[in-house]
Amino acid sequence: MAVRKRILSGMRPTGRLHLGNLHGALDNWIQLQNQYECFFFVADWHALTTDYATPEQIHANTWEMVMDWLSAGLDPELATLFVQSDIKEHAELYLLLGMITPLPWLERNPTYKEVQTQLDQKDLATYGFLGYPVLQAADIIIYRANGVPVGKDQLPHVELTREIARRFNFMYQTEIFPIPDPLLTEVPVLPGLDGRKMSKSYGNCIYITEPEQSIVEKISKMMTDPQRIRRNDPGDPEVSPVFAYHKLYSTPPEVADIADGCRTARIGCVECKKRLMRNVIAKLGPIREKRLQLERRPDDVKSIIQAGNDKARRESAATMEQVRRAIGLGNSV
Ligand code: TRP
Known about the structure:
mainly alpha, Rossmann fold, Tyrosyl-Transfer RNA Synthetase, elongated
């Protein structure tokens, strides 16, 4: 059998995952497990770059997120799952990459300024925050990954990773690091309950392990076409968040029927939402079931993380041996 290409991706620990996370990344990771040798990790040091003043939540969020990964279908038999801060080798490579990374590469990183403006109540004029992409580069190349599945927002970071890897190889005359390709995922747009982007801070999320009753309540309150005021008004499905969900959760014939029923006022919003509830519950039911099972066996989850960490440590330690040899430091006696 041909050797599988290796991919790696990470998520910052935000706690329980919502449908935006599921359709934006996790579902894709689950698919990729069958095609690639996969490394997926919790980027808890990256969370610390913005939450350094309140680190208490990061550990709990890590745990919640890994539980949700497993519940949704990441399979430790197929993918190596680990926690960044448990693999100290990342920190060593991050330090060494910092030596060769020109400051202007970091200063012109578009997300640097953007996030600083977005999170303006936090002081992000820190060395660690500027170095965010260098740490990310270390995460990726320490596993000699060939591909990095990410969304569009992360492309500048992968591009920077490629430049840093090339510069290292050139500077120390080695070929240790493959140049990783971004694996861009086409993600369906899934709005939050109020039509804005789904986000914890907006309080407009459906969580992937949401109980049935609360799925029903949340969908009942969801925004629809604001122009469709009375039951007999025809609507425009394309402006309704409910319809965006149907596209993901309902079969193509049902989606077609809903669209037509909305435009002709044959189907009312209540009926449309009822059908959606049924389909969302059918998809999320097994995820919630799995989560309840895992909660009864926390030691099993711990062993999964331990095994993933061990594998990640072996892999990254092997890379670091070569890195130290290439630079000629770190093995002095
Ligand atoms: N920066 C990524 C995000 O915010 C998380 C991340 C950290 C990552 N290290 C990575 C993603 C390495 C891919 C590869 O989503």
